[in-house]
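ok so heres the complex, two chains, lmk if somethin looks off
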Amino acid sequence: MTNRASFFRRLLSNRSFTIGAALVGLVLLLALLAGYIAPFDPLKGNFRARMMAPNPQHWMGTDQFGRDILSRVLHGARISLQIGFMVALITAASGVLIGATSGYFRRLDGPIMRLMDAFMAFPSIILAIAISSVLGASVVNVVIALSIAATPHTARIVRASVMVVREMEFVEAARALGAGHTRILLRHILANAMAPLMVRMTYVFAVAILNEAVLSFIGVGPPPPAPTFGAIIANGRDFIVAAPWITVAPGLAILLSVLGLNLLGDGLRDVLDPRMSVNTR
Amino acid sequence: MNTASALPMLQVQQLSTGLGAEGPEILSAVDITLNSGEVLGVVGESGSGKSLLALSIMGLLPPAISVRGGQVFLQSQNLLQLQAPALRALRGKAMAMIFQEPMTSLNPVMRVGQQISEVLRWHRSLQGEAARQESIALLQRVEMPDPQRQIDAYPHELSGGMRQRVMIAIALAGRPRLLIADEPTTALDVTIQAQILELIRKIQRDDGMSVLLITHDLGVIAEMCDRVAVMYAGRVVEQGTVMDIFDRPAHPYTRGLLASRPKIAAGANWLCTIEGTVPAVGQMGGGCSFAPRCKLASPDCAQRPALREVGPSHLAACVTPFERMSDPRAQTP
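and the predicted structre for the whole thing:
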């Protein structure tokens, strides 16, 4: 109990964690409340208000169909964060499954890791583009593509920490008491190997938001008119000189989300693994 | 004490282990017998194969090391012929093990009570409140102060001695007939050592449990054991009662060990040692492995001496047992 309390105290006194958490919290809150606070319908055009620069009525201007950019970004945050969260969750699950199997059962380690190496040989964004163009453009397929692309590295990280914990004495002690493989793997090894995975998840979350934007930008993301950060930018690129606000607003949103998640992850890592921490204060 | 049978609790016969299939031999034809309700000490210096013997009995050898031959009987059951699930069911129930390092032998993210209850659930099908009450009772048994509160402690909140008590409680949870204690006190302070040994001894007497106590500390042996096996370089060189070993040591190595105990008496400011070191694994010849360090070595020692009776239930593997060497203490300046 004291342990847990001091863990949170250390988290809250970590500057990069608190700033990151505040940023992520803000973006999350805006995304959740998009339906209430967005001043306009994100999908409905208004021909009398096309390509308007930011003004008191449209804080971030409008696009070529007269759609309110602020409303689109708020609703876009919803989809983009959902994609990021789902990708982080699925990647964690598949990474733990593959990494733990590979790290614990020595005989499976070689074959599994060589397969992961094969995936890692492709830059993850190329892999995601390939998968998502095969599967077709939809939110679900983007999530699948990005999860597959992020899994090999995650599996590798889980495998490494499983291999460290596997050799610890309390694991042998558990075995000497008659614990089976599943029990040892879940209660004794994975429970002690979670820290790097938690940090990795914040990173996967951030990269998924970024990569979703890339996929949307080149046209293999969720189909229009669904607003996602990437889709709004892709739509605005033709007018980047005449109407830069169309791309700047979602760009800033991506910046804030990714920066927030990265700071959050850094802070988490510093607290979970004090040896790795770089003293910035 | 034991009503089950006259069979020894544990009998290791000609057990050999080696590195892989082809590599050098590590344990070499080890014979030990542990009778029911008895404490057998296994003593030897670092690298003599004591811990490996314990792991072989438990079936927990690291993957690189394999059993080459021999038998391990737990009463009438040949452990080396059991399939993994059957062996797993015996571990923690029929036989349990206490490790050397109480600091690292407990899972840091589980409360003490959970770790005890886990064993109760596997081996005695106790759940929930019943398991909790039994865990508290076990902690009481190992003389843990304030067990009602400590049951919810995490290992890092406990001292080394208290953790070793928890380890013992966990080991006792399955009510084992055989307890293997691998240097249970080496990592502890001297005062705590005495308490823990006293505790093990008390529980052993109360339950009539058989204990295999591995140590390099002859003082611990003298205090705790009924019988002793002396190991050297992966072999048992002498086995007998504590009296035999301390009063009538037959093997020159045993005599060397006894002579090298530090003494406070009569101006002894010189530590006796056995010259040389244990031969490295794979460096052992066919003969007596102690011969290169033995002052009594003769050409006969090129043949490996078998463990043979030199007194009633007193075995030694030496061609010239009981031969007196000139007392090394007499030579010290």
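quick notes: The two ends of chain B are 50 Å apart (CA to CA). thats all i got rn
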